Amino acid sequence: MDTTIEILTVDNWKILKDLWLPALESDSIAYGSSYEENVDLNEDAWRKKFEAGPKYIARVGGNPVGLIGVHYEKTKKTEHVAHVVGFYVDPFYRGQGVGRKILERVLADLQAHPKISKVELGVNVLQTNAVALYKSFGFVEEGVLHNATKIGNTYYDHAQMYLLFPEKL
Question: How many CB atoms lie under 10 A from the CB of residue 48?
Fold first, then answer.
């Protein structure tokens, strides 16, 4: 399977939209925002999503099938921290190494970033495959945010995880 990873430019906001909306629909427990909050956003709102940091996509056979966003902290005291957000792989491509490949690229870029020495993420504890993937890259569970999200009348816990780049500490 020919998988390529690229960083989207803001002019490719529609690709972000076309990946993000299905992610929110199919895996609603995984994300802090909802399909309903995003479906009617205009072009300017989608472009604004690029301000927090880069958006990486995975392509298989030229088709976008995976997504990871990176958010950078902006204050002097926390500028060494980056957040991995919005990780999604099309269900058809799961278990085929696409998620591993895109996360590997993101982490390599963050490790090369001159300011970044820590990467953080949150993951729904029910997403055991995602937790296992993160742990395989060296992420450590730091704690659990209980009742972190709510969908309908159901609350979900989220594990907070981090990865340090020791050579940069």
Answer: 13
